[in-house]
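@channel sequence for tomorrow's demo:
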Amino acid sequence: MTAEILRDEQWLVRQHGFDRARANVYETLFTVGNGRLGTRGCLEEGHAGSLSGVFLAGVYDGHDAIVTDLVNAPDWVDTSVHVDGTRLDADTCDIVSHERVLDMSQGVLWRSTVFADRRGRRTRVESLRAACLHDRDVCVLRLTVTPLDHDATVLVSTGLDGDRSNLEALPVYPADRTFSPEERWAKWARSRHLEPVDAGVSDDVLHLVTRTIGTRVEIAYAATAAVSPAPQEVETVHGSRGVTRRSSVSLAAGESVRLDKVVAVGTSRDLDQLSGEMLLEHVRSTVRRATDAGIDALLRANAEAWEDIWNECDAEVVGDPRLAQAVRFSIYHLVITANPDDPTVNIGAKSLSGEGYRGHIFWDTEAMMLPFFVLTQPRTARALLGYRHHTLGGARRNAAEGDRRGARYAWESADTGDEECPRFTPDGSNRFWTRDEEVHVSADVAYGIRRYVEATQDEAFLREKGAEILFETSRFWVDFAEKGDDGHLHLRQVMGPDEFHSHVDDNAFTNRIVAWHLRYAADVHDAMASGAPDELARVAELIELDPGEVATWRRVADAIQPPRRNAEGVVEQFAGYFDRLDVPVTEWDENDMPRYPEGYHHFNCEDTQLLKQPDVIQLMFMLPDEFTERDKEVAFEYYEPRTLHKSSLSPAIHAIMGIEVGDPVRAVQYFTRSALVDLADNQGNTCEGMHIASAAGTWTTLVTGFGGLRVHGTGLDFSPWLPPEWEGIRYRLTWRGLHLRVHVERERLSFEVAGADDATLSVTVQGRDVVLTAGQRTVVDLHPVTA
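structure tokens (generated this afternoon):
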């Protein structure tokens, strides 16, 4: 096998040499997936300190754990090579050369490693793997072994490994204690979520069936493993938690043996809800069909599916290869973490690339990730919002737990929508108040619904699912708001996105977006009353909605305490924030990220004005039309120096608002931080999984920040600004069924629209009305922009 399958260099992310200290980072970066499954980019043979992970969207379990985990599922890669009895891995052999390449254009991971055993004999191992995008139930692995300077007997072992566990907690050690890369993960306590059901081989097809212990989800794999040339010896080893095929081949120097492995995956929680023998037969049938097609055909079909995806969502910085790569890297990871075919799953904070945050879903989806999918892959956006309807029962239970009506979406949710945020840090020394006080999530969900319907005009979703969500969550806010002596309603004991401050009253972000939510819900109700009375009647009957409640939503929205301001007009983050200790930030790390001032950490900033991320800037980003340019300018100047960016969401928001308020230097700086958060590991924890919301923020910054796109209820507005060091920006959009290609240059903005022959689209460019016509290229001269 050669690297000939790899495409243009601009689509490649490369690793040169093996560095054990950064191995886990590359395992995250090189995740392959298809929205249904994600597999960390671990070496096939593994090594001490490797953090292997395979994650199936929606497969959760809480057995033997503090809260529910996204289960570390059976390993379908599971392959090792022995040469004359010596195992080829980084622990046993010397690594002479090592290169890996992620080809983002087609979603494949290629690897070539030359090992030297203790006698100095050299053997090359090459591999190629993919999780097929055209058939989300299928994964493929091709591995080639070549003794370079010696004759040898090569033993290739491959199988399905169900002996898996999840990281549970790291025992408490002194603060200055560090561990070697080999030891780091071995120190953790582990949770086991899988019990064996069946493992074996039938008609040359390997199979493995396991079941989650608590949630009782069956996971079935079937695999074929073809070795060429034909092996002299073949042995199948059955274990209680897996099955392995061992094939032995004698080779002369320079000869190669190749393994072609095809794997099919299915679970009992899939939409067809197969289980038992029917599920097993389903994956067997799938893997036979895929094997008959052959790996080469599967890879071609996968590449074609990726080409279709990139035609919908590609974006790039022209003239800066590093940032162009980073933007595409962000898009690649967004694509592989979302499944348009399953409305019961959503995107965890670490996507399907790691165990960080236990695979839980946060507000990040609606606030940060949904805009990307809404404007490039609306079918996926619909599925993500479908998850919120699927878990509405859990949201109702969350509200009832606090003796409130309606529904409250969890700060951290999993498969049911119930609150899954731990109550305490693993050592028990600090309480997580986010689970109790970050109630704004429900309004963020409403925000996501509005943005989706606005871009797609999918009124059917709004009537069938969205309205029920909006109405039930509005009921919660009516119960949650407290009447004060000043005549206002107050939202007390809350926490905004800035998690440094808990137990606050009248958080500006929460108050404003809740009022927005209530008015939107009332507007939807009124629109349905006149335009879809039958659908409204169905929802009203389902949730026993009294028409008088709608007027209450408007009254509550009008009575909620509006944001307070200081003498300069700065919106106060929460009541009393300006009275807190103003601690200056004076140090930055090697990635130009602020350090905690001496003596401070995540849990002791309560009495200061230090911010994890800025609520007010986030609010102005999400609801830009509700604030003046002056509001944004003074807020940015006040809050930016006090923000430590300990959330990876923060730099992207600052980049967008930096452009908005005319601070291009900081805008480019923050965009670069966001774009490189994982490629440069500038938060220091990429080893645990992708910062997937930051990936979405990178796209948003490029498109809605520098690319100048603003989405309004009536259409699209473009007012781009191009940094001096860039040559241009290209990006693609989907808007109400039309596909746009946008090219920003220094002096012009060009559009290409694909759609029906007579389709037109009215947009504005720097305040001028422009009509775009499908099949035609439209070029608009840009006025000079100073920022």
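heads up for whoever presents: The chain has a mean pLDDT of 95.
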